Amino acid sequence: MNKRKAQLQTGTARWRFYTVFGVISLVFCALLARAAYIQVISPDMLREQGDMRTHRTLSDTVLRGMITDRNGLELAISVPVNTVWADPKQIAESKSLEKTREWRALADILRVDLAELTARVTKNPNGRFVYLERQVSPAMADYVRHLKLPGVHLRAESKRYYPAAEVNAHLVGITNIDDIGVDGIEKLYNDALTGEEGKKSILRDAKGRTIEVLAEEESQQAKDVVLSIDQRIQTLAYQELKKAVQYFQADSGSIVAVDIETGELLAMVNSPSYNPNNRKTITAAAMRNRAITDTFEPGSSVKPLAVLSALEFGSVSANTVINTSPGWLQIGGRRVRDGKNHGELTLEGILKKSSNVGTTKLALELPTEQFLDVFYNAGFGSDTGTGLLGESSGIFYDRRRWSDFELATLSFGYGLSVTATQLAQMYATLGNGGIRRPLSILKLEKPLPGERVFSHSSSRQLIKMMEAVLDEDGSGHRAAVEDYRVAGKTGTSRKAVAGGYGNDYVGLFAGLAPISNPKLALVVVINNPKGDKYHGGEVAAPVFSKVMGGALQILNVPTDKNDDLQLAQVKEAQNDA
User: Cα separation of 155 and 282, whole Å?
Assistant: First the structure.
């Protein structure tokens, strides 16, 4: 009996041992399997969960670079603002919406309906982020901060501000609400202006204290962009252009000013313009930089090229006389006309009286290629080198055969289309002694390499001839500038319509000054002026006079009006001695 009892006790003990051993083994295997799962099979998810609790990435905000004029005047700057955002989950958990008075005050300051505001933060109760208002002023941000609404937060951002507003709008462009350039210089140089934010990866404990800095990337500061524009000339040009467009009830207008020696753009304005600080008023049509996008037939403003081509070829000299009687010329079945019969004209007289017959006779006496080359060399049919977005190359047909009438119309500015900027480059080339330089919208340390396209002597002869255009009996006398010798040419062209030409005009004046040492080339374009006055000498020449005169004084360019008189007096005194 005792032996039987002893066996039963021994069996029970053994069973208990195996049971305990089995349980311990299972627990150990389970722990081993769990460890294997965590370490081998699914470590990334758990590591991510851990990082979400302890790992943070901080960034250093980098303000967008400035855009300045050549003298350092700010044209576009970034100012600190705040964005109001909400955490719907935090709002729901804290029952923040029960603070009706504060939420009504928030809706009032953000200028939104209270029902719309609450709908935004309750649409997705589990969401963690929703914008309430972007780029609010510091005063509004302080007001929101003092409301102390749970789940409503502020985030520091920056906003682009344009001090000169509509004066530079077409050139400088704008950024979108995320501070990314979408037009003009802002878009063209967006990468340089943006920079890169610095990043710092850290570990935090449960109380938010920094335990360790894991990695750190230095921020790359944004670069400033320095334009070639002189804001003093830019403002003057815009003011005079705006007054002229309004006075003549024109559709639009453009002015381009070029530094002849360097090819830098000193002014580029359009009217009407827009205010880039008020995005609600901006339309796609208003943002178009007409000085580089809109083309037109330049009319008489390119007549100097016909004279230049003849001088270059040697078929005429400065004293050559052309008979333009009886004031018209029959070419095939068509007729080229002047306003009246000017009779015999010198080359200077052809430009002064703007004779279509005179330039036609000059063009038809030249080999076709010789005549066409002068237009190619002037830069027509190609871009000016500014790199500005949307710049048009204009239209200059490259065909094998040209009729006499087509060559005739080309000599007085029809049959091709140019932009105001291309025309300014042409006059800058003449003023630079026949050297064509790419135009630059950025301030240059030294001029870009140029290409000689016209001889120096022919260019200088032509400039002196164009001075007569501004004589009292010349077509451009209203463009004269007090105390300065100016060379230029009027232009009036009819706008093409389906099947021919309509009754709308483009009036323009292009010129350079001072003749003794050319510094500035300027083009004024008035598009479709209304009323009885529409000729370039009436609508564009007075604007040219005011802008050119003011610009030369701003640049401290010495006067040269009496240079010839002083030289004659010196020679007379020497002879008397």
Answer: 27
